[in-house]
Amino acid sequence: MSAQELSTQDVRHIAKLSRLAPNDATVDSMRATLSSILGHIAKLSTVDVAGVQPMAHPLSISNRLDADEAGETLPIEQVLLNAPARVERFLAVPKVLDEGGA
Amino acid sequence: MTTQAHACDGLHTIAQQVRSGTVTASARVESCLARIEARGAQIHAFNEVLAADARAAALRIDACVQRGESPGPLAGVVLAIKDNIATKIGHTTCSSRFLENYRSPFDATVIQRLEAAGAILIGKTNLDEFAMGSSTENSAFGPTRNPWDPSRVPGGSSGGSAAAVTAGFCDAALGSDTGGSIRQPASLCGCVGFKPTYGRISRYGLVAFGSSLDQIGPFARDVRGCAELFAAMSGSDRLDSTTAPLEVPDCLTQLDEPLRGLRVGVPREYRSDANSPAVASVLEDAINAYRSLGATIIDVELPLTDVGISTYYVIAPAEASSNLARFDGIRYGKRAEMAAGDGLEELYAKSRSEGFGPEVQRRIMLGTYVLSSGYYDAYYNRALQVRRRIREEFDRAFERCDVLLGPTSPIPAFEIGGKSDPWAMYLCDVYTVNTNIAGIPGISLNAGYSQEGSVSLPIGMQLQGPAFSESLLLRAARMLERALPPVYPA
Q1: Which of A6, A28, A37 has the most B C-beta neighbours within 10 Å, making it the best mutation to test the interface with B?
Q2: CA–CA gap between residue B195 and residue B79 (Å, rounded)
Q3: Minimum distance, in Å, between the CA of residue A29 and any CA atom of chain B
Q4: What does the pLDDT average to over A52-64?
Q5: pLDDT value at position B1?
Q6: At A39, which CATH number?
Q7: Which chain B residue has the Cα nearest residue A4?
Q8: DSSP B191
Q9: Tell me: the pLDDT tens digits for B116-135?
Q10: In a domain, A12, yes or no
Protein backbone atom coordinates (compact mmCIF):
# COMPACT_ATOMS: atom_id res chain seq x y z
CA MET A 1 0.00 0.00 0.00
CA SER A 2 1.52 3.31 -1.02
CA ALA A 3 0.17 6.79 -0.41
CA GLN A 4 -2.80 7.19 -2.71
CA GLU A 5 -3.26 10.39 -4.69
CA LEU A 6 -6.88 10.47 -5.82
CA SER A 7 -7.97 12.04 -9.10
CA THR A 8 -11.08 14.17 -9.56
CA GLN A 9 -12.57 11.23 -11.44
CA ASP A 10 -11.86 8.91 -8.48
CA VAL A 11 -13.65 11.30 -6.13
CA ARG A 12 -16.69 11.50 -8.41
CA HIS A 13 -16.79 7.71 -8.57
CA ILE A 14 -16.58 7.36 -4.76
CA ALA A 15 -19.27 10.03 -4.40
CA LYS A 16 -21.54 8.09 -6.74
CA LEU A 17 -21.02 4.88 -4.75
CA SER A 18 -21.69 6.90 -1.57
CA ARG A 19 -24.95 8.33 -2.97
CA LEU A 20 -23.63 11.86 -2.59
CA ALA A 21 -23.82 14.68 -5.14
CA PRO A 22 -20.90 17.03 -4.42
CA ASN A 23 -20.48 20.20 -6.49
CA ASP A 24 -17.20 20.96 -8.28
CA ALA A 25 -15.70 22.93 -5.39
CA THR A 26 -16.50 20.13 -2.94
CA VAL A 27 -14.96 17.54 -5.27
CA ASP A 28 -11.73 19.56 -5.36
CA SER A 29 -11.49 19.98 -1.61
CA MET A 30 -12.48 16.33 -1.01
CA ARG A 31 -9.77 15.21 -3.42
CA ALA A 32 -7.15 17.08 -1.42
CA THR A 33 -8.29 16.02 2.07
CA LEU A 34 -9.04 12.39 1.20
CA SER A 35 -5.66 12.05 -0.53
CA SER A 36 -3.94 13.50 2.52
CA ILE A 37 -5.81 11.18 4.90
CA LEU A 38 -4.98 8.14 2.75
CA GLY A 39 -1.35 9.22 2.88
CA HIS A 40 -1.44 9.01 6.68
CA ILE A 41 -3.35 5.72 6.62
CA ALA A 42 -0.57 4.22 4.50
CA LYS A 43 1.27 3.82 7.81
CA LEU A 44 -0.67 0.56 8.19
CA SER A 45 1.70 -1.02 5.68
CA THR A 46 4.53 -0.75 8.22
CA VAL A 47 2.87 -3.34 10.48
CA ASP A 48 3.75 -7.00 9.94
CA VAL A 49 0.43 -8.83 9.59
CA ALA A 50 1.63 -12.02 7.94
CA GLY A 51 -0.65 -14.85 9.00
CA VAL A 52 -2.80 -12.66 11.28
CA GLN A 53 -6.53 -13.40 11.18
CA PRO A 54 -8.62 -10.25 10.59
CA MET A 55 -10.62 -9.16 13.67
CA ALA A 56 -13.94 -7.68 12.62
CA HIS A 57 -15.39 -7.53 16.09
CA PRO A 58 -14.12 -7.40 19.69
CA LEU A 59 -16.45 -10.12 20.99
CA SER A 60 -16.35 -13.71 19.86
CA ILE A 61 -20.10 -13.95 19.52
CA SER A 62 -22.27 -16.23 17.47
CA ASN A 63 -25.80 -15.49 16.33
CA ARG A 64 -28.33 -15.06 19.08
CA LEU A 65 -31.74 -16.10 17.91
CA ASP A 66 -35.11 -15.18 19.36
CA ALA A 67 -38.04 -17.53 19.43
CA ASP A 68 -40.01 -17.09 16.20
CA GLU A 69 -43.02 -15.43 17.77
CA ALA A 70 -44.81 -12.27 16.71
CA GLY A 71 -44.09 -9.47 19.14
CA GLU A 72 -45.17 -5.88 19.47
CA THR A 73 -44.34 -3.56 16.61
CA LEU A 74 -44.43 0.21 16.36
CA PRO A 75 -47.81 1.56 15.21
CA ILE A 76 -47.69 2.59 11.54
CA GLU A 77 -49.27 5.97 12.27
CA GLN A 78 -46.55 6.77 14.76
CA VAL A 79 -43.74 5.72 12.44
CA LEU A 80 -45.21 7.73 9.56
CA LEU A 81 -45.05 10.90 11.64
CA ASN A 82 -41.40 11.10 10.56
CA ALA A 83 -42.08 10.42 6.88
CA PRO A 84 -40.98 13.24 4.57
CA ALA A 85 -43.85 12.40 2.16
CA ARG A 86 -46.80 10.04 2.48
CA VAL A 87 -49.96 9.01 0.74
CA GLU A 88 -52.55 7.60 3.13
CA ARG A 89 -50.70 4.92 5.11
CA PHE A 90 -47.79 4.59 2.67
CA LEU A 91 -44.46 6.34 2.14
CA ALA A 92 -44.47 8.35 -1.09
CA VAL A 93 -41.41 7.88 -3.34
CA PRO A 94 -40.56 8.91 -6.91
CA LYS A 95 -41.74 6.52 -9.57
CA VAL A 96 -39.25 3.66 -9.96
CA LEU A 97 -40.86 1.66 -12.78
CA ASP A 98 -42.39 2.93 -16.00
CA GLU A 99 -46.10 2.55 -16.66
CA GLY A 100 -46.68 -1.04 -17.62
CA GLY A 101 -43.79 -2.15 -15.43
CA ALA A 102 -40.58 -3.94 -16.21
CA MET B 1 -25.52 29.63 46.73
CA THR B 2 -27.66 26.52 47.10
CA THR B 3 -27.87 25.70 43.39
CA GLN B 4 -24.12 25.36 43.35
CA ALA B 5 -24.01 23.14 46.40
CA HIS B 6 -26.61 20.72 45.06
CA ALA B 7 -24.72 20.10 41.87
CA CYS B 8 -21.67 18.95 43.81
CA ASP B 9 -23.56 16.26 45.70
CA GLY B 10 -22.97 12.69 44.62
CA LEU B 11 -25.79 10.89 42.86
CA HIS B 12 -26.18 8.59 45.81
CA THR B 13 -26.76 11.52 48.18
CA ILE B 14 -29.20 13.16 45.79
CA ALA B 15 -31.26 9.99 45.42
CA GLN B 16 -31.25 9.41 49.18
CA GLN B 17 -32.49 12.94 49.84
CA VAL B 18 -35.23 12.61 47.25
CA ARG B 19 -36.33 9.20 48.52
CA SER B 20 -36.43 10.44 52.11
CA GLY B 21 -38.36 13.56 51.11
CA THR B 22 -35.77 16.06 52.43
CA VAL B 23 -35.44 17.43 48.89
CA THR B 24 -38.07 17.13 46.19
CA ALA B 25 -37.25 16.02 42.67
CA SER B 26 -39.14 19.12 41.50
CA ALA B 27 -36.81 21.42 43.44
CA ARG B 28 -33.80 19.67 41.95
CA VAL B 29 -35.12 20.07 38.42
CA GLU B 30 -35.83 23.78 39.05
CA SER B 31 -32.32 24.24 40.38
CA CYS B 32 -30.79 22.70 37.23
CA LEU B 33 -33.12 24.76 35.01
CA ALA B 34 -32.00 27.92 36.85
CA ARG B 35 -28.37 27.13 36.11
CA ILE B 36 -29.20 26.42 32.46
CA GLU B 37 -31.10 29.73 32.34
CA ALA B 38 -28.06 31.57 33.71
CA ARG B 39 -25.33 30.08 31.52
CA GLY B 40 -26.94 27.74 29.00
CA ALA B 41 -26.92 30.12 26.04
CA GLN B 42 -23.22 30.88 26.49
CA ILE B 43 -22.11 27.23 26.71
CA HIS B 44 -24.63 25.78 24.22
CA ALA B 45 -24.44 22.32 25.74
CA PHE B 46 -28.01 21.47 24.75
CA ASN B 47 -29.73 21.07 21.41
CA GLU B 48 -33.00 20.95 23.31
CA VAL B 49 -33.91 21.55 26.97
CA LEU B 50 -36.92 19.44 27.94
CA ALA B 51 -38.16 21.60 30.81
CA ALA B 52 -41.83 20.59 30.70
CA ASP B 53 -41.05 16.86 30.46
CA ALA B 54 -38.49 17.12 33.29
CA ARG B 55 -40.99 18.94 35.52
CA ALA B 56 -43.65 16.31 34.80
CA ALA B 57 -41.22 13.47 35.55
CA ALA B 58 -40.18 15.15 38.81
CA LEU B 59 -43.83 15.45 39.89
CA ARG B 60 -44.31 11.72 39.26
CA ILE B 61 -41.28 10.93 41.42
CA ASP B 62 -42.41 13.26 44.20
CA ALA B 63 -45.88 11.67 44.11
CA CYS B 64 -44.25 8.26 44.33
CA VAL B 65 -42.31 9.35 47.45
CA GLN B 66 -45.48 10.79 49.00
CA ARG B 67 -47.28 7.50 48.50
CA GLY B 68 -44.44 5.79 50.33
CA GLU B 69 -43.25 3.90 47.27
CA SER B 70 -39.64 3.65 46.19
CA PRO B 71 -38.85 5.72 43.09
CA GLY B 72 -35.62 3.81 42.45
CA PRO B 73 -31.88 4.01 43.14
CA LEU B 74 -31.44 7.11 40.94
CA ALA B 75 -34.54 8.94 42.23
CA GLY B 76 -34.43 12.59 41.20
CA VAL B 77 -31.02 12.37 39.50
CA VAL B 78 -31.14 14.87 36.63
CA LEU B 79 -29.64 13.53 33.40
CA ALA B 80 -28.64 15.05 30.08
CA ILE B 81 -28.63 12.73 27.07
CA LYS B 82 -26.40 12.93 24.03
CA ASP B 83 -28.59 13.69 21.07
CA ASN B 84 -27.70 10.50 19.20
CA ILE B 85 -29.50 8.37 21.80
CA ALA B 86 -33.18 7.81 21.00
CA THR B 87 -35.72 9.31 23.39
CA LYS B 88 -39.47 9.39 22.90
CA ILE B 89 -39.55 12.87 24.38
CA GLY B 90 -38.04 15.71 22.38
CA HIS B 91 -36.06 15.23 19.18
CA THR B 92 -33.14 12.94 18.35
CA THR B 93 -31.11 14.93 15.82
CA CYS B 94 -27.50 13.66 16.01
CA SER B 95 -26.74 17.40 15.56
CA SER B 96 -27.45 16.87 11.87
CA ARG B 97 -29.64 18.82 9.45
CA PHE B 98 -30.66 15.43 8.15
CA LEU B 99 -32.48 14.57 11.39
CA GLU B 100 -33.35 18.12 12.46
CA ASN B 101 -37.06 17.29 12.86
CA TYR B 102 -36.76 13.60 13.76
CA ARG B 103 -38.68 12.32 16.76
CA SER B 104 -37.96 8.78 17.87
CA PRO B 105 -41.00 6.54 18.25
CA PHE B 106 -39.12 4.52 20.90
CA ASP B 107 -36.72 4.91 23.82
CA ALA B 108 -33.20 3.46 23.81
CA THR B 109 -32.74 0.59 26.27
CA VAL B 110 -30.48 2.78 28.44
CA ILE B 111 -33.23 5.41 28.64
CA GLN B 112 -35.80 2.82 29.71
CA ARG B 113 -33.46 1.45 32.38
CA LEU B 114 -32.41 4.85 33.77
CA GLU B 115 -35.97 6.19 33.87
CA ALA B 116 -37.08 3.00 35.59
CA ALA B 117 -34.37 3.72 38.20
CA GLY B 118 -35.89 7.15 38.85
CA ALA B 119 -33.64 9.39 36.74
CA ILE B 120 -35.11 12.49 35.09
CA LEU B 121 -34.16 13.59 31.56
CA ILE B 122 -33.57 17.33 31.29
CA GLY B 123 -32.37 17.67 27.71
CA LYS B 124 -30.56 16.43 24.63
CA THR B 125 -26.95 17.50 24.32
CA ASN B 126 -24.94 18.75 21.38
CA LEU B 127 -22.35 16.58 19.60
CA ASP B 128 -20.22 16.51 16.49
CA GLU B 129 -22.65 15.48 13.75
CA PHE B 130 -23.31 11.73 14.05
CA ALA B 131 -20.55 11.65 16.72
CA MET B 132 -17.85 12.31 14.12
CA GLY B 133 -15.35 14.69 15.66
CA SER B 134 -13.26 15.59 18.69
CA SER B 135 -14.39 19.15 19.42
CA THR B 136 -18.20 19.41 18.99
CA GLU B 137 -17.48 22.03 16.30
CA ASN B 138 -18.93 19.73 13.63
CA SER B 139 -22.46 20.21 14.96
CA ALA B 140 -24.95 21.59 12.42
CA PHE B 141 -26.33 23.70 15.26
CA GLY B 142 -23.11 25.46 16.26
CA PRO B 143 -20.29 24.55 18.66
CA THR B 144 -20.50 23.85 22.39
CA ARG B 145 -18.12 25.90 24.51
CA ASN B 146 -15.87 24.76 27.34
CA PRO B 147 -17.22 25.88 30.76
CA TRP B 148 -13.63 26.62 31.90
CA ASP B 149 -12.98 28.98 28.99
CA PRO B 150 -15.77 29.64 26.47
CA SER B 151 -13.26 30.47 23.73
CA ARG B 152 -12.19 26.83 23.81
CA VAL B 153 -13.75 23.55 22.70
CA PRO B 154 -15.18 21.07 25.22
CA GLY B 155 -13.75 18.16 23.23
CA GLY B 156 -15.98 15.74 21.40
CA SER B 157 -17.92 14.18 20.13
CA SER B 158 -19.93 14.11 23.40
CA GLY B 159 -18.91 17.71 24.15
CA GLY B 160 -22.42 18.83 25.11
CA SER B 161 -22.75 16.11 27.76
CA ALA B 162 -19.29 16.80 29.22
CA ALA B 163 -19.95 20.56 29.31
CA ALA B 164 -23.42 20.10 30.85
CA VAL B 165 -22.06 17.97 33.71
CA THR B 166 -19.12 20.31 34.28
CA ALA B 167 -21.30 23.44 34.29
CA GLY B 168 -23.78 21.84 36.72
CA PHE B 169 -26.69 21.89 34.26
CA CYS B 170 -27.42 18.30 35.30
CA ASP B 171 -26.09 15.72 37.78
CA ALA B 172 -24.82 13.30 35.18
CA ALA B 173 -25.10 12.58 31.47
CA LEU B 174 -24.87 9.93 28.79
CA GLY B 175 -22.47 9.97 25.88
CA SER B 176 -21.29 7.53 23.26
CA ASP B 177 -17.67 6.58 22.61
CA THR B 178 -16.49 5.20 19.26
CA GLY B 179 -12.85 6.34 19.46
CA GLY B 180 -12.69 8.49 22.59
CA SER B 181 -15.90 10.51 22.35
CA ILE B 182 -16.68 10.16 26.07
CA ARG B 183 -13.17 10.15 27.52
CA GLN B 184 -11.60 13.01 25.54
CA PRO B 185 -14.36 15.59 26.32
CA ALA B 186 -14.36 14.43 29.95
CA SER B 187 -10.63 15.18 30.01
CA LEU B 188 -10.97 18.59 28.35
CA CYS B 189 -13.87 19.60 30.63
CA GLY B 190 -12.48 18.08 33.84
CA CYS B 191 -15.27 15.64 34.70
CA VAL B 192 -15.31 11.84 34.74
CA GLY B 193 -16.21 9.92 31.58
CA PHE B 194 -16.43 6.16 31.38
CA LYS B 195 -16.46 3.88 28.33
CA PRO B 196 -17.31 0.36 29.48
CA THR B 197 -16.25 -2.82 27.69
CA TYR B 198 -17.79 -3.30 24.25
CA GLY B 199 -20.95 -5.33 24.77
CA ARG B 200 -21.52 -4.32 28.38
CA ILE B 201 -24.24 -1.76 27.69
CA SER B 202 -27.00 -2.11 25.13
CA ARG B 203 -26.61 0.02 22.02
CA TYR B 204 -30.30 -0.37 21.13
CA GLY B 205 -31.45 3.17 20.34
CA LEU B 206 -27.95 4.56 19.86
CA VAL B 207 -27.74 5.88 16.30
CA ALA B 208 -25.06 3.61 14.84
CA PHE B 209 -21.72 5.05 13.71
CA GLY B 210 -19.09 2.28 13.96
CA SER B 211 -21.01 -0.76 15.15
CA SER B 212 -18.00 -2.79 16.28
CA LEU B 213 -16.60 0.21 18.19
CA ASP B 214 -19.60 2.19 19.57
CA GLN B 215 -20.39 2.06 23.27
CA ILE B 216 -22.72 4.15 25.42
CA GLY B 217 -21.29 5.35 28.73
CA PRO B 218 -21.81 7.83 31.58
CA PHE B 219 -20.42 11.23 32.54
CA ALA B 220 -20.53 12.38 36.17
CA ARG B 221 -18.69 14.70 38.52
CA ASP B 222 -17.11 11.76 40.33
CA VAL B 223 -16.19 8.14 39.75
CA ARG B 224 -19.03 6.93 41.97
CA GLY B 225 -21.56 8.78 39.83
CA CYS B 226 -20.30 6.96 36.74
CA ALA B 227 -20.37 3.65 38.62
CA GLU B 228 -23.97 4.23 39.69
CA LEU B 229 -25.18 4.99 36.18
CA PHE B 230 -23.19 2.02 34.89
CA ALA B 231 -24.84 -0.27 37.44
CA ALA B 232 -28.30 0.95 36.46
CA MET B 233 -27.96 0.58 32.69
CA SER B 234 -25.50 -2.26 31.98
CA GLY B 235 -26.20 -5.90 31.23
CA SER B 236 -27.48 -8.07 28.43
CA ASP B 237 -30.39 -6.85 26.30
CA ARG B 238 -32.55 -8.91 23.96
CA LEU B 239 -32.76 -5.88 21.65
CA ASP B 240 -28.97 -5.74 21.11
CA SER B 241 -27.53 -9.10 20.13
CA THR B 242 -23.99 -7.75 20.67
CA THR B 243 -24.51 -7.29 24.40
CA ALA B 244 -22.45 -9.83 26.30
CA PRO B 245 -24.57 -12.51 28.02
CA LEU B 246 -22.68 -12.05 31.28
CA GLU B 247 -23.68 -11.07 34.79
CA VAL B 248 -22.51 -7.56 35.64
CA PRO B 249 -20.46 -7.69 38.85
CA ASP B 250 -21.20 -5.29 41.70
CA CYS B 251 -19.14 -2.14 41.16
CA LEU B 252 -20.46 -0.10 44.07
CA THR B 253 -20.01 -1.92 47.38
CA GLN B 254 -16.21 -1.96 47.39
CA LEU B 255 -15.67 1.14 45.29
CA ASP B 256 -14.08 3.17 48.07
CA GLU B 257 -11.78 0.38 49.25
CA PRO B 258 -8.28 0.90 47.84
CA LEU B 259 -6.89 -2.06 45.92
CA ARG B 260 -3.92 -3.71 47.61
CA GLY B 261 -1.05 -4.70 45.38
CA LEU B 262 -2.42 -2.83 42.37
CA ARG B 263 -0.09 -3.04 39.37
CA VAL B 264 -0.27 0.12 37.27
CA GLY B 265 1.28 -0.20 33.82
CA VAL B 266 2.59 2.95 32.18
CA PRO B 267 3.20 2.40 28.46
CA ARG B 268 6.38 4.03 27.24
CA GLU B 269 4.46 5.26 24.18
CA TYR B 270 2.09 7.28 26.42
CA ARG B 271 5.04 9.41 27.58
CA SER B 272 5.31 10.84 24.08
CA ASP B 273 6.91 14.12 23.01
CA ALA B 274 3.49 14.98 21.60
CA ASN B 275 2.22 15.53 25.16
CA SER B 276 2.08 19.17 26.19
CA PRO B 277 4.42 19.96 29.13
CA ALA B 278 1.43 20.33 31.45
CA VAL B 279 0.00 16.96 30.40
CA ALA B 280 3.41 15.30 30.85
CA SER B 281 3.68 16.82 34.32
CA VAL B 282 0.18 15.70 35.41
CA LEU B 283 1.01 12.17 34.21
CA GLU B 284 4.04 12.15 36.54
CA ASP B 285 1.80 13.45 39.38
CA ALA B 286 -0.64 10.60 38.78
CA ILE B 287 2.18 8.01 38.72
CA ASN B 288 3.50 9.42 42.00
CA ALA B 289 0.02 9.37 43.51
CA TYR B 290 -0.38 5.67 42.75
CA ARG B 291 3.11 4.96 44.03
CA SER B 292 2.35 6.70 47.31
CA LEU B 293 -0.82 4.59 47.60
CA GLY B 294 1.32 1.46 47.48
CA ALA B 295 0.74 0.52 43.86
CA THR B 296 3.55 -0.97 41.80
CA ILE B 297 4.38 1.05 38.69
CA ILE B 298 5.34 -1.15 35.76
CA ASP B 299 6.90 0.01 32.50
CA VAL B 300 5.14 -1.62 29.57
CA GLU B 301 5.30 -1.25 25.82
CA LEU B 302 2.46 -0.76 23.35
CA PRO B 303 4.40 -0.17 20.11
CA LEU B 304 1.23 -0.15 17.99
CA THR B 305 -0.13 2.92 19.80
CA ASP B 306 0.73 5.23 16.94
CA VAL B 307 -0.87 3.13 14.20
CA GLY B 308 -4.17 3.26 16.11
CA ILE B 309 -5.39 6.39 14.34
CA SER B 310 -4.62 4.91 10.90
CA THR B 311 -6.40 1.68 11.85
CA TYR B 312 -9.36 3.55 13.26
CA TYR B 313 -9.74 5.81 10.21
CA VAL B 314 -10.20 2.74 8.05
CA ILE B 315 -12.50 0.69 10.29
CA ALA B 316 -14.74 3.47 11.65
CA PRO B 317 -15.45 5.17 8.29
CA ALA B 318 -15.99 1.75 6.67
CA GLU B 319 -18.65 0.89 9.25
CA ALA B 320 -20.07 4.43 9.10
CA SER B 321 -20.43 4.34 5.31
CA SER B 322 -22.56 1.24 5.71
CA ASN B 323 -24.54 2.42 8.76
CA LEU B 324 -25.33 5.84 7.31
CA ALA B 325 -26.69 4.30 4.11
CA ARG B 326 -30.02 4.15 5.96
CA PHE B 327 -30.33 7.93 5.71
CA ASP B 328 -31.85 7.96 2.26
CA GLY B 329 -34.61 10.56 2.48
CA ILE B 330 -37.34 7.94 2.12
CA ARG B 331 -38.67 6.90 5.50
CA TYR B 332 -37.62 9.74 7.80
CA GLY B 333 -35.31 12.73 7.91
CA LYS B 334 -34.34 15.17 5.19
CA ARG B 335 -35.78 14.86 1.69
CA ALA B 336 -34.39 17.31 -0.87
CA GLU B 337 -36.56 19.22 -3.32
CA MET B 338 -36.74 17.30 -6.57
CA ALA B 339 -36.18 18.76 -10.04
CA ALA B 340 -38.13 17.67 -13.11
CA GLY B 341 -36.85 14.30 -14.29
CA ASP B 342 -35.22 13.40 -10.98
CA GLY B 343 -35.61 9.79 -9.95
CA LEU B 344 -34.82 7.77 -6.86
CA GLU B 345 -31.03 8.01 -7.27
CA GLU B 346 -31.18 11.80 -7.41
CA LEU B 347 -33.44 11.85 -4.36
CA TYR B 348 -30.90 9.84 -2.37
CA ALA B 349 -27.85 11.82 -3.45
CA LYS B 350 -29.40 15.29 -3.13
CA SER B 351 -31.00 14.55 0.25
CA ARG B 352 -27.75 13.20 1.65
CA SER B 353 -25.61 16.02 0.24
CA GLU B 354 -27.95 18.64 1.67
CA GLY B 355 -28.48 16.82 4.96
CA PHE B 356 -24.93 15.80 5.91
CA GLY B 357 -22.16 18.20 6.89
CA PRO B 358 -18.62 18.12 5.42
CA GLU B 359 -17.00 15.81 8.02
CA VAL B 360 -19.79 13.22 7.73
CA GLN B 361 -19.54 13.28 3.93
CA ARG B 362 -15.77 12.95 4.17
CA ARG B 363 -16.02 9.87 6.37
CA ILE B 364 -18.72 8.24 4.26
CA MET B 365 -16.55 8.68 1.19
CA LEU B 366 -13.42 7.45 2.95
CA GLY B 367 -15.31 4.38 4.18
CA THR B 368 -16.81 3.72 0.77
CA TYR B 369 -13.35 3.94 -0.78
CA VAL B 370 -11.62 1.52 1.61
CA LEU B 371 -14.42 -1.01 1.07
CA SER B 372 -14.50 -0.63 -2.70
CA SER B 373 -13.35 -3.22 -5.19
CA GLY B 374 -9.57 -3.27 -5.50
CA TYR B 375 -8.93 -1.52 -2.18
CA TYR B 376 -10.73 -3.75 0.32
CA ASP B 377 -7.71 -6.00 0.99
CA ALA B 378 -5.17 -3.19 1.05
CA TYR B 379 -7.10 -1.05 3.49
CA TYR B 380 -10.04 -2.67 5.27
CA ASN B 381 -8.78 -6.22 5.62
CA ARG B 382 -5.32 -5.02 6.60
CA ALA B 383 -6.79 -2.70 9.25
CA LEU B 384 -8.68 -5.67 10.71
CA GLN B 385 -5.41 -7.63 10.89
CA VAL B 386 -3.69 -4.72 12.64
CA ARG B 387 -6.73 -4.59 14.95
CA ARG B 388 -6.06 -8.12 16.15
CA ARG B 389 -2.42 -7.28 16.75
CA ILE B 390 -3.44 -4.23 18.81
CA ARG B 391 -5.78 -6.40 20.89
CA GLU B 392 -3.01 -8.98 21.42
CA GLU B 393 -0.62 -6.23 22.47
CA PHE B 394 -3.10 -5.15 25.19
CA ASP B 395 -3.59 -8.78 26.25
CA ARG B 396 0.17 -9.16 26.73
CA ALA B 397 0.38 -5.91 28.70
CA PHE B 398 -2.43 -7.05 31.01
CA GLU B 399 -0.46 -10.18 31.86
CA ARG B 400 1.96 -7.85 33.65
CA CYS B 401 -0.36 -5.18 35.08
CA ASP B 402 -3.98 -4.67 36.20
CA VAL B 403 -4.61 -1.28 34.62
CA LEU B 404 -2.85 0.99 32.15
CA LEU B 405 -2.33 4.65 33.01
CA GLY B 406 -1.68 7.52 30.63
CA PRO B 407 -3.02 10.87 29.47
CA THR B 408 -6.49 10.87 27.90
CA SER B 409 -5.49 13.58 25.43
CA PRO B 410 -2.01 14.87 24.56
CA ILE B 411 -3.21 18.47 24.99
CA PRO B 412 -5.73 20.40 27.10
CA ALA B 413 -8.74 22.14 25.53
CA PHE B 414 -7.80 24.08 22.39
CA GLU B 415 -9.29 27.25 20.91
CA ILE B 416 -12.46 26.97 18.83
CA GLY B 417 -11.32 26.99 15.19
CA GLY B 418 -7.80 26.02 16.27
CA LYS B 419 -7.59 22.79 14.27
CA SER B 420 -8.59 23.07 10.63
CA ASP B 421 -6.69 20.05 9.25
CA PRO B 422 -8.77 16.86 9.68
CA TRP B 423 -5.75 14.69 10.49
CA ALA B 424 -4.58 17.10 13.21
CA MET B 425 -8.05 16.81 14.76
CA TYR B 426 -7.98 13.00 14.46
CA LEU B 427 -4.67 12.90 16.40
CA CYS B 428 -6.50 14.27 19.48
CA ASP B 429 -7.66 10.68 19.97
CA VAL B 430 -4.27 8.99 19.75
CA TYR B 431 -4.58 7.57 23.30
CA THR B 432 -8.26 6.66 23.13
CA VAL B 433 -8.98 4.95 19.79
CA ASN B 434 -7.15 1.73 20.59
CA THR B 435 -9.45 1.13 23.58
CA ASN B 436 -12.36 0.84 21.13
CA ILE B 437 -10.34 -1.07 18.55
CA ALA B 438 -9.57 -3.68 21.25
CA GLY B 439 -13.07 -3.44 22.82
CA ILE B 440 -11.73 -2.90 26.37
CA PRO B 441 -12.99 -0.41 29.00
CA GLY B 442 -11.46 3.01 29.63
CA ILE B 443 -12.17 5.85 32.02
CA SER B 444 -10.97 9.45 32.07
CA LEU B 445 -10.83 11.48 35.27
CA ASN B 446 -9.29 14.79 36.13
CA ALA B 447 -5.84 14.70 37.71
CA GLY B 448 -4.54 18.26 37.39
CA TYR B 449 -4.65 21.60 35.64
CA SER B 450 -2.73 23.63 33.11
CA GLN B 451 -2.39 27.34 33.72
CA GLU B 452 -2.83 29.18 30.41
CA GLY B 453 -2.48 32.86 31.27
CA SER B 454 -5.35 33.66 33.63
CA VAL B 455 -7.23 30.52 32.60
CA SER B 456 -6.98 27.18 34.32
CA LEU B 457 -7.67 24.15 32.09
CA PRO B 458 -8.32 20.63 33.35
CA ILE B 459 -6.15 17.67 32.35
CA GLY B 460 -7.55 14.16 32.48
CA MET B 461 -5.80 10.85 32.91
CA GLN B 462 -7.06 7.65 31.34
CA LEU B 463 -7.10 4.21 32.91
CA GLN B 464 -7.72 1.17 30.73
CA GLY B 465 -8.35 -2.37 31.91
CA PRO B 466 -8.94 -5.83 30.46
CA ALA B 467 -12.33 -6.62 28.92
CA PHE B 468 -15.11 -6.84 31.55
CA SER B 469 -12.84 -5.57 34.36
CA GLU B 470 -15.06 -2.54 35.15
CA SER B 471 -15.24 -3.29 38.85
CA LEU B 472 -11.47 -3.16 39.25
CA LEU B 473 -11.05 -0.25 36.84
CA LEU B 474 -13.53 1.92 38.72
CA ARG B 475 -11.86 1.16 42.05
CA ALA B 476 -8.45 2.04 40.63
CA ALA B 477 -9.91 5.29 39.29
CA ARG B 478 -11.48 6.06 42.67
CA MET B 479 -8.04 5.74 44.31
CA LEU B 480 -6.58 8.36 41.99
CA GLU B 481 -9.62 10.62 42.44
CA ARG B 482 -9.16 10.63 46.22
CA ALA B 483 -5.46 11.40 45.87
CA LEU B 484 -5.94 14.20 43.32
CA PRO B 485 -9.48 15.53 43.90
CA PRO B 486 -10.95 17.67 41.11
CA VAL B 487 -12.51 21.10 41.37
CA TYR B 488 -15.33 22.43 39.22
CA PRO B 489 -16.00 25.91 37.85
CA ALA B 490 -18.49 27.92 39.96
Answers
A1: A37
A2: 17
A3: 10
A4: 88
A5: 29
A6: 1.10.20
A7: B375
A8: S
A9: 999 999 999 999 999 999 99
A10: yes
Type and span of the H or E element at B15:
helix B11-20
Q: Side-chain half-sphere of A75: how many Cα atoms within 13 Å? A: 3
pLDDT of A94 > 70? The answer is yes
Asked if B261 is an interface residue toward chain A (Cβ–Cβ < 8 A), one would say no
Nearest residue of A to residue B315, measured between CA atoms: A56
CB contact under 8 A, A33 and B198: no
* Residues of B that are catalytic: 82, 157, 181
Q: Which amino acid is at B62?
A: D
Q: Which pLDDT band, with edges at 50, 70 and 90, does B490 fall under?
A: confident
Give, in order, the Cα–Cα distances in Å from A14 to each of B325, B374, B453.
14, 13, 46
pLDDT, one tens digit per residue, over B273-293 is 999 999 999 999 999 999 999
B297 inside 8 A of chain A by CB: no
Domain that holds residue A39: 8-46
Please provide the CATH number assigned to the domain covering B2-260+407-483.
Answer: 3.90.1300.10
In a domain, A23, yes or no: yes
How many domains does chain A contain in total?
1
**Alpha carbons B221 and B215: distance in angstroms, whole number:** 20
Contacts of A78 in chain B (CB under 8 A): 105
